[in-house]
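To whoever picks this up:

The nightly regression suite flagged Peptidase S8 and S53 subtilisin kexin sedolisin as changed. Nothing in the input moved, so I suspect the structure step. Input below, exactly as stored in the fixture:
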Amino acid sequence: MALAATVPLAACAPPAPQRPAAPQNDYLVFYAQGRHADAVHAVERAGGTMVGEDARLGYLLARSAGGGFTEGVGADQAVVGVSSDRRIGYATARPSVHQEARAAFPDASSFTKSAAEPLAGRQWDMRMIGADRANATVPGSRQVLVGVIDTGVDGKHPDIAPNFNRELSRNFVTDRPKDENGETLDGPCEAEGCKDPADVDDDGHGTHVASTIASPINGIGIAGVAPGVQIVNLRAGQDSGFFFLKPSLDALAHAADIGVDVVNMSYYVDPWLFNCRNNPADTRKQQLEQRAVITGMQRALDYARRKGVTLISALGNGGIDLGRPKVDDQSPGYPKGDEKERKIDNSCVNVPAESDGVISVSAVGPTGRKAVYSDYGVEQTDLAAPGGDILDGEGARADRGILAAAPERVLRATGRIDAAGNPRGADVVKDCKNGRCSYYQYLEGTSMASPHATGVAAILISRFGKPGEGGLQLDPDTTEQLLYKSAAQKACPTPRRHVYTIYNKTETHECEGDKADNGFYGHGIVDAWKAATVEP
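Regenerated output under the current build:
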């Protein structure tokens, strides 16, 4: 009988611990025109796997666990930019109230109610641009679709619901409870799979924007610039207010494909506040990422514009002359703590505000002066609009901001209303009718200026648009020229070097250009009344 085989001692030892598999990351790989096949091969050579693509915008969606994937695939001449599929943006809104100064603001009872919308008396912004008069003449057509690319829209808000198009609305983001370093980002998920419904806004920013554009005339709260048009939620922002590149691309492409007439983009794309193609202060990987932002967004914007979408963006809230940027110490802004100081110049761009084909809007306060926080630049500013400025006058007052709808759940979560539903400061206003209450909040920012221009564009499209996909359509070039033609021209201040006082400190911004087109106001402050009456 044969003896049993001897078992080596090593085989009896406990198995060696297995190394955890390297995490898989997704990347957007943008390829040069006509180089699709070459880019696919480049992905494979760099150790990546194709998991998707978008031929409309010319990029591959690749997956790889290799730490050097970006540099590897980016070395191929067929590839023009590479970005990891993660957060690259932040909404451009500012609170209209500082915690330490709330006591100085007037109480809500200091305002009288209007015979029209109950809170119309608070809307200095609508009176400034003649929207209160235009509403009675050209409220806007329901055949006009306005896309809000933002943090979402509260489609159930009483002062938004009548104009909210739920069928066409989409949410392109998945909430992320924590960032890649384990720090809180969006917080606990509210919906199954961390995917909120398309009528939810857990941040409030997008709801405020949508309300400014198109809150209806319904005897509740306020009226928007174009209270008769439809709002389409194209959510690209996280609950936390951050944006990722791919959702931004998806939102623009969807807007184009469903016949949206005009989109509002009240956010900037980063982690690079300024995107530079070849800054020597950046690594090769960082350069490729910034090229991806510039290239990818431009392709999406071009695609949308070719299909009839007018593109309107907030200019930014850094108080920066965008024609003469010198230092960027806020980038890369994600993950938190990665920021570095680097020298920049005018070849570096803020996206989408400085992207081609985009109408960029600066902000003014109640007196019509450029808001202290608003970015500017003779090459960059196309139009101006009310964005609010709590410091535009003596002291600081919340009612110098822009009042628009706010989701009740956000106000509760942030402590702006108490358990009984009462506002905890003059920045929040409650309006009740027939036992149902709705809420509004004062905010300031170029985020608040941009939707005023978007609403005026909607009025023009309502008047001059022709039947097309989605309803009415008007060529974006025509819409742009009519916006400029109907704007109220405003000259630079005298002296041109305007000195702002900010809590006992001063800051100087210099305005360049003439009355017809300058760095503070562009072609002028948008005018809804003129848009309702102007001839082409």
